[in-house]
UniProtKB/TrEMBL annotation:
EC number(s) recorded for this UniProt protein: 5.6.2.2
Known cofactor(s): Mg(2+)
Stretches the record annotates as Disordered: 594-619
Residue ranges of coiled coil: none
Domain Toprim intervals: 444-558
Classification via InterPro entries: DNA_gyrase_B_C, HATPase_C_sf, HATPase_dom, Ribosomal_Su5_D2-typ_SF, Ribsml_uS5_D2-typ_fold_subgr, Topo_IIA, Topo_IIA-like_dom_sf, Topo_IIA_B
Organism: Candidatus Adlerbacteria bacterium RIFCSPLOWO2_01_FULL_51_16
Protein name: DNA topoisomerase (ATP-hydrolyzing)
Molecular function terms, GO-annotated: ATP binding; DNA binding; DNA topoisomerase type II (double strand cut, ATP-hydrolyzing) activity; metal ion binding
Keywords linked to the UniProt accession: ATP-binding, DNA-binding, Isomerase, Magnesium, Metal-binding, Nucleotide-binding, Topoisomerase
Family classification: Belongs to the type II topoisomerase GyrB family.
GO BP terms, alphabetized: DNA topological change
Biased composition (Low complexity): 595-608
Catalyzed reaction equations: ATP-dependent breakage, passage and rejoining of double-stranded DNA
C-alpha cells in the first residue's frame, strides 16, 4: 500500500514587498490608458477632447459660463476655452501646491466631490483633465481670474515649472491647450465632423450655451501667447467653423433627430421636474417609422449602454400606454410590450444627479439606483397627463403601438414558420449554401456573393474546410421601412438568416453565429454597391451585434488584371494600376484592353563583357473586372479569398446617431433629403458606371 507523503511547496522565486510596484502620480494612466479612455485608437483620441470640454461644460451647467470654444490647430494642437470662473490657483491645503497643479496632476482631484463647487457635474470621478495631461506630450493650462492671468505647462503629465502669474487680466475663464502624445496613440488624426456632432449634441443639452468649433489645421495660425485672450475665433475667421446655440433644449434635439422623419402627432411631449434630488428631463415624439431612437444622458454624458434612467423610462412608457389603451377601449386588451411602444419613437431622457455613479470611466452606463424611480415617477405622471390633454395625439400614438403589436404577432408567426420549416429542411441550412466542413465558428467564414456565377467560382476556388459560400439572387429587400413579417417573405433574406444561425428579432442569439467572419463580396460596379448598401442596412437594423462584435467584413476584389509577358499582377485601384503599367499608359474604360502600342522598357540580361545592354519591349494586357463572376476559381482564390493575400475591410459603427441619420437618408422615403445628400457628397464619390 502506498504511503501518504506531505507535499512540499514548489519554489517559484521570491515574492516580497520589493515585488510590489507603486505607480506614482499619473504613471498608472500612461501604463494603462485604456482603463481611463477606453482605447488608444480614434475614439480614445477624441475622448481627450470630450474630457477637457466636459470641465468647461460643467461650468455652464452650473450657470458660471455661457460660451465654450474648441479649436483644432496645426501640429495636432487642441485648444479649449471657456468663460467660466477659472480653475482656482491658490495653494491647496492638502497638497501644498497650487490648486491648478493639483487638478492637473492628481487623479481624483477636483471640485466635484463636496462643497458647493459643482451641484451637478459629468466628471464626478475627478480624473478627466489629469488623464488628458498624462496622455499629452505637452499641455498648457491658462487661467483668468481675480484680476490676473496665470499659466502652467506640463510634459507627459509632469509640470515644467510652478504656476506663475503672467499679467493682469479683466477676463475670467480657463484655456487648456495640448497635443496628444504620439507614443500613446496609434494615429493622431482628428475627425472634425465627429467633433462637431458630439458638441452639437451638448449644445442642445445645455440651453443658452454657445459652442464654437473651429478647424484651423490648414491655416498657418500659431498658438497665441498665454494671458492675451480667451477666444480666438476673430483671428480664425477664414477657417471652417460651426457655432451652436439652442434655447429649445431637448425639444430642439428631438426636432433635429426627426428632421428626416414624418411625425405622426402634432404636439411634442416635454417635461422637466426634480424629485428626491434628481432632475428629470424628457422629450419625445413618434414618427412614421419602424426604428426607435432613444438617447439617454446622465449629467449631460451620453450613456450609449443605457442604465437605470433608461430602464425607468421604458417601464413608465409601457405601463402608461397600456393603461391609457385599456381605459380608452373600456376593456382589457392584449398588453403592449416594450417592443411595441418603442416602434417609431424618438426620445431623449436626461437626468442630473449630485452623486452620480457610472459603470466605467468612459461613462457608458448609468448605475445610480435613484434615477430609475425618479424617471418612472416624473415621466409616468406627465406622460399620462399629456395623453389625457391631447386626445388626437394620444390616438395616433396608441394607434402606432397597436399596429406594431399586430405586426409583431404576424412577424412571430412568420418567424416561427421560417425556423420550423428550416429545421425540417437540412437542420435549418438553405440549399443554396455551400457550407464549410468546420463546425468551429472562430475559424469559419461566410462569403455572401452576388449571383450564381460568382457563387460557382467561389465554391470551386474556396478552402472547403473553413469557407462557406452563399450566393444571393438579385437585390434583396430594402429593410429600412419593412417589418419583420415582410422581410421573412423574402427568400434571399430567409436564406441569410438560416445560414447565420442566430435567428432574428427577440430570439436573436449572437452566441449561435456560425461564422466569425461574415464577408460581403459584391461586384465593383453600381449594382454591386447598391446590393452592398442593402446588405449593410439589413445588418445594421437587424443584426447590429454582428457588427459590434467585429464579425462583418467587406471583401476588396481587384479592379484590374495586368499581364506583362508571362508576369501577372492585380491592381486594386487606378493608382495601383498606373504604378504597375507606367504613368503614360491609359486604357479605355469598361472593357478588356490589349495595349499593343504601350510598352514597358526593361533591361535584358547582360551579354558577354564589353557588349551593351539591349532593351526589350513587353506587350501589356489589362483586363478590367466588372464582377466576381468574371474570375475563374483560381483568380478568385488568389485575389479575394486567400487569407494570406486578400484585403478585407472591417465594418464598424463609430457614431450610432450619425449612422442612423445616413441610413434614414439613403434608404428612407424622403427623396429631397436623399437628393441633397448625394449632391453634397458627389465630389467624394468614386463612380464606375
Amino acid at each position: 500500500m502506498a504511503q501518504n507523503k506531505e507535499k512540499k511547496p514548489v519554489k517559484n522565486g521570491s515574492y516580497s514587498a520589493a515585488d510590489i510596484t507603486v505607480l506614482e502620480g499619473l504613471e498608472a494612466v500612461r501604463r494603462r490608458p485604456g482603463m481611463y479612455i477606453g482605447t488608444t485608437g480614434p475614439d480614445g483620441l477624441h475622448h481627450l477632447i470630450w474630457e477637457v470640454f466636459d470641465n468647461s461644460r460643467d461650468e455652464a451647467m452650473g450657470g458660471f459660463a455661457s460660451e465654450i470654444e474648441v479649436v483644432l490647430l496645426p501640429q495636432n494642437l487642441i485648444r479649449v476655452a471657456d468663460n467660466g470662473r477659472g480653475i482656482p490657483v491658490d495653494t491647496h491645503k492638502q497638497t501644498k501646491v497650487s490648486a491648478l497643479e493639483t487638478v492637473m496632476t492628481t487623479l481624483h482631484a477636483g471640485g466635484k466631490f463636496g462643497g458647493e463647487g459643482y451641484k451637478v457635474s459629468g466628471g464626478l470621478h475627478g480624473v478627466g483633465v489629469s488623464v488628458v495631461n498624462a496622455l499629452s506630450g505637452w499641455l498648457r493650462a491658462e487661467v483668468h481670474r481675480d484680476g490676473g492671468a496665470y499659466m502652467q505647462e506640463y510634459a507627459i503629465g509632469k509640470r515644467a515649472a510652478a504656476v506663475k502669474k503672467i499679467n493682469g487680466s479683466k477676463l475670467h475663464g480657463t484655456v487648456i491647450a495640448y497635443s496628444a502624445d504620439p507614443a500613446t496613440f496609434q494615429k493622431i488624426e482628428y475627425d472634425f465632423n465627429k467633433v462637431v456632432s458630439h458638441l452639437r449634441e451638448q449644445a442642445y443639452l445645455v440651453r443658452g450655451l454657445r459652442i464654437t468649433i473651429i478647424d484651423a489645421r490648414a491655416s498657418s495660425f500659431k498658438l497665441p501667447e498665454p494671458g492675451k485672450a480667451l477666444f480666438i475665433r476673430k483671428e480664425l475667421s477664414e477657417s471652417p467653423s460651426q457655432t451652436f446655440y439652442f434655447e429649445g433644449g431637448l425639444r430642439s434635439l428631438i426636432s433635429f433627430h426627426n428632421r428626416y422623419q414624418k411625425p405622426i402627432h402634432k404636439n411634442l411631449f416635454y417635461v422637466e421636474k426634480e424629485v428626491d434630488g434628481v432632475s428629470v428631463e424628457v422629450a419625445l415624439q413618434y414618427a412614421d417609422d419602424i426604428a426607435s431612437r432613444v438617447f439617454p444622458f446622465a449629467n449631460n454624458i451620453y450613456n450609449q449602454e443605457g442604465g437605470t434612467h433608461l430602464t425607468g423610462f421604458k417601464t413608465a412608457l409601457t405601463r402608461t400606454l397600456n393603461s391609457y389603451n385599456r381605459g380608452d377601449n373600456g376593456k382589457e386588451g392584449e398588453a403592449f410590450t416594450g417592443e411595441d411602444v418603442l416602434e417609431g419613437l424618438t426620445a431623449v431622457v436626461s437626468v442630473k444627479l449630485r452623486e452620480v455613479q457610472f459603470e466605467g470611466q468612459t461613462k457608458g452606463k448609468l448605475g445610480s439606483v435613484e434615477a430609475r424611480g425618479a424617471v418612472e415617477t416624473v415621466f409616468g405622471e406627465a406622460f399620462a397627463m399629456f395623453l389625457e390633454e391631447n386626445p388626437d395625439d394620444a390616438r395616433q400614438i396608441v394607434g402606432k403601438a397597436l399596429l406594431a403589436l399586430k405586426a409583431r404577432k404576424a412577424a412571430k408567426a412568420a418567424k416561427d414558420s421560417v425556423l420550423r420549416k428550416g429545421a425540417l429542411e437540412g437542420f435549418g441550412l438553405p440549399g443554396k449554401l455551400a457550407d464549410c466542413q468546420s463546425k468551429e465558428a472562430s475559424e469559419s467564414e461566410l462569403f455572401i456573393v452576388e449571383g450564381d456565377s460568382a457563387g460557382g467560382s467561389g465554391k470551386q476556388g474556396r478552402d472547403r474546410k473553413t469557407q462557406a459560400i452563399l450566393p444571393l439572387r438579385g437585390k434583396i429587400l430594402n429593410v429600412e421601412r419593412a417589418r419583420l413579417d415582410k422581410m421573412l417573405a423574402s427568400q434571399e433574406i430567409k436564406y441569410l438568416i438560416l445560414a447565420l444561425g442566430t435567428a432574428i428579432g427577440d430570439v436573436f442569439d449572437l452566441s449561435k453565429l456560425r461564422y466569425h467572419k461574415v464577408i460581403i463580396a459584391t461586384d465593383a460596379d453600381v449594382d454591386g454597391a447598391h446590393i452592398r448598401t442593402l446588405l449593410l442596412t439589413l445588418f445594421y437594423r437587424h443584426f447590429k451585434p454582428v457588427i459590434e462584435g467585429g464579425y462583418l467584413y467587406i471583401a476588396q476584389p481587384p479592379l484590374y488584371k495586368i499581364k506583362k509577358g508571362k508576369e501577372i499582377s492585380y491592381a486594386y485601384s487606378d493608382e495601383e494600376k498606373a504604378k504597375l503599367v507606367g504613368k503614360d499608359f491609359e486604357v479605355s474604360e469598361g472593357e478588356e484592353a490589349a495595349a499593343e502600342n504601350a510598352v514597358v522598357s526593361s533591361e535584358g540580361p547582360e551579354q558577354s563583357e564589353g557588349q551593351e545592354k539591349k532593351t526589350r519591349k513587353q506587350k501589356v494586357t489589362i483586363q478590367r473586372y466588372k464582377g466576381l463572376g468574371e474570375m475563374n476559381p483560381e483568380e478568385l482564390w488568389e485575389t479575394t479569398m486567400d487569407p494570406a493575400k486578400r484585403v478585407l475591410k472591417l465594418v464598424t459603427i463609430e457614431d450610432g446617431a450619425d449612422a442612423d441619420r445616413v441610413f434614414d437618408i439613403l434608404m428612407g422615403e424622403d427623396v429631397l433629403s436623399r437628393k441633397t445628400f448625394i449632391q453634397s457628397n458627389a465630389k467624394t464619390a468614386n463612380l464606375d458606371i
